[in-house]
Amino acid sequence: MKELVVISGKGGTGKTSLMAAFASLAEKKVLCDADVDAADLHLLMDPDIKERHDFQGGSTAIINPNNCTQCGLCRDLCRWNAISEAFEVDPIECEGCGVCVDFCPEEAIDFPIKTCGEWFISNTRFGPMVHARLGIAEENSGKLVALVRQEAKKLAEKNKLDLLITDGPPGVGCPVIASLGGASAVLVVAEPTVSGLHDMERVAQLAAHFKVPGMVCVNKFDLNFDQTEAIEKLAKENKMTVVGRVPFDPVFTESMVKGQTVLEYVGNSKFRSSISEIWQNIRNQLVL
Amino acid sequence: MIISIASGKGGTGKTTVATNLAVSLGSDVQLLDCDVEEPNAHLFINPVIELNKKVYTPVPQIDEEKCNFCKKCAEICRFKGIAVIKETVLTFPELCHSCGGCVEVCPEKAITETGRELGVIEIGHRNSLAFAHGRLRVGEAMSPPLIREVRSHTRSDQLTIIDAPPGTSCPVIAAMKGADFVLMVTEPTPFGLHDLKLAVEAVKLLEIPRGLVINRSDIGNDGVQTYAKMENLPILMEIPFDRRIAEIYSRGKLIVEEMPEWKEKFIELYRQIEKITLKSE
Fold first, then answer.
1. Which of A21, A91, A169, B164 is placed for a possible disulfide with B175 were both Cys, Cβ 3.0 to 4.6 Å?
2. What's the DSSP call for residue A169?
3. What kind and span of H or E run contains A231?
4. B3: which strand partners?
């Protein structure tokens, strides 16, 4: 089985819109939304949720005031300053390390596992999809990313599907790292701006760091030709394959408003053939 | 006063608003770019950097001479950062959250701490505008401690403008907590609206007054407007889609410098924020 992970570094470059367009072209695949922090793919895929599961991330310390003698040891040990002078734990600051729990001489600190989100297995008009929703202000997004990818792989194996297309998160931190391990290739969707170039360079380094082969596609390429060329040059220097360019076009927003992928919205057109060509280049890279 | 600029969805114009607002207001202002995974503000500000320092987070270092392989360190670690296999102790510094539990629990005092590099912070200025940002080391997973380090350079005698990362989880919280106002930037599309709702819930949790900038306000649909009305989320500025603005941005230039008529609009944006924060005090 092959897994293509679509990332971007910078947010808002058109990752999800393009990934959805490829989903409408690809055969025998499972879709996975690994941008668990701000998942948007479902807005285009209109998933029919078949299975719903709780995601249990970490634990949070809770001080039982009846047993607490206010000795202050937990406050001294907590490196997150999560325990107030009144000996209450701020759940947003608590890292879930459990050090206070283990050292409390009165055993006055509980450490319940918390439900940090939900994940789903759904059917869509383009095939099965695994997606998730991380709770607001929660931690452990990397863990949830790893979980949805693992479940999507299982689903693909069960249904004898040989491709997994994963919509990754923005940035280069914990959730992105969790979306890269073991992937067959990443596609970086870049935009031709100084920010787009800067951020693409960092994700290219990240992909190289984890030894995942990379491809690059420049979206809205006609907004700035110089930056488009700079991105493609940088891609080649980093041994990444340039799979194509997509023009700036209001049809992306229009199709999103209709809840459609851009290819469903435009029907048969020149635009369709340019996206199809990019997908064919990606397929060749993945050796599908 | 601290104004945090956040969005939920990436690429909606956070950095555009943060940089243009900071430059419009001139002196006694500092801009802190807390999107340490992909910092971009410096590309528009071109600051003179005066100080560049590496930031480390503590991770355990085992003295095998003192260690008696009791496994207490591996047992206390909730992040699988230490494993003891027979007479070998393995540490996995990339998994360590720097809680210090292993150091405290070791009965032989065999554990000390060394540093894992999180990234760098750079501090400088552009004319009278003070500037600082962090850049997460590529391969490093944890951004919140680096964000907190950037924020430790907040000067209480100045107006602080924070460019926050996208999303709604721990890095965003680290960039918003303790702010006096959160300015949300969105685009009026289904993706923009969906992620704005999540971001608003996060700001509510922190009980911070908030307002909205709608970028590319004439694309998409009216979902964001309707939602803002329902939520009593004041719309403080609308920036229409303009190919000139998109091109200015693509070249790393500031709108308020290339199209000076925008400067007064950003100053007015600040006046409105000031009014709201005064009312909520």
1. B164
2. P
3. helix A225-237
4. B161, B181
B70 DSSP 8-state letter:
-
**Which pLDDT score is estimated for A158?**
96
Q: Give yes or no for B46 touching A (CB within 8 A).
A: no
- Cα atoms in the Cβ-side hemisphere of radius 13 Å centred on A122: 21
Q: Read off the pLDDT of each residue in A23-42 and give the average, rounded to a whole number.
A: 96
8-state DSSP, A221: G
d(CA A250, CA B113): 54
What dihedral angle (degrees, nearest 10) is formed by the CA atoms of B197, B199, B205, B208?
-110
A41 touches chain B (CB under 8 A): no
Each residue of B48-78: pLDDT tens digit? 999 999 999 999 999 999 999 999 999 999 9
A169 touches chain B (CB under 8 A): yes
At residue A177, φ and ψ (nearest 5 deg) are -60, -40
- Please name the residues between 174 and 233 in chain A that touch chain B, using a CB distance below 8 Å: 174-177, 191-196, 198-199, 202, 205-206, 209-210, 223-224, 227
What domains sit in chain A, N to C, each tagged with a CATH number? Answer: 2-56+117-286 (3.40.50.300), 61-111 (3.30.70.20)
Residue B66, both tokens:
């003192």
Residues 6+ apart with CB under 8 A from A156: A1, A29, A30, A162, A163, A164
Average pLDDT, rounded, for chain B = 96
User: Any residues with CB less than 8 A from the CB of A135 and at least 6 apart, and which?
Assistant: A115, A116, A117
Q: What is the mean pLDDT of residues B135-142?
A: 97
Please report, rounded to a whole number, the percentage of residues in chain B having pLDDT higher than 90. 98
Domains and CATH numbers, chain B: 2-55+118-280 (3.40.50.300), 64-109 (3.30.70.20)
- CA distances B15 to A254, B44, B119, B171, B235, Å, are 25, 9, 21, 16, 18
Closest C-alpha to B177, from B136, B198, B148, B149: B148
Provide, as residue numbers in chain A, all residues whose Cβ is less than 8 Å from the Cβ of B43: 194-195, 198
pLDDT digit string, tens, across residues B110-126: 999 999 999 999 999 99
Cα–Cα distance measured from residue B103 to residue B73, given in angstroms and rounded to the nearest whole number: 8
Residues of A in Cβ contact (< 8 Å) with B214: none
Chain segment B72-81, per-residue pLDDT in tens: 999 999 999 9
At CB < 8 A and 24+ separation, what contacts does A86-94 make? A87/A63, A88/A63, A89/A60, A89/A61, A89/A62, A89/A63, A91/A60, A92/A137, A92/B173, A92/B177, A92/B205, A92/B206, A94/A60, A94/A61
**B91-97: long-range contacts, CB 8 A cutoff, minimum separation 24:** B91/B59, B91/B60, B91/B61, B91/B62, B93/B59, B93/B60, B94/B141, B96/B57, B96/B59, B96/B60, B97/A95, B97/A97, B97/B142
Asked if A251 reaches chain B (Cβ–Cβ under 8 Å), the answer is: no
* Parallel/antiparallel/unpaired status of strands A113-124 and A127-134: antiparallel
Query: In this predicted structure, what is the pLDDT of residue B281?
Result: 72
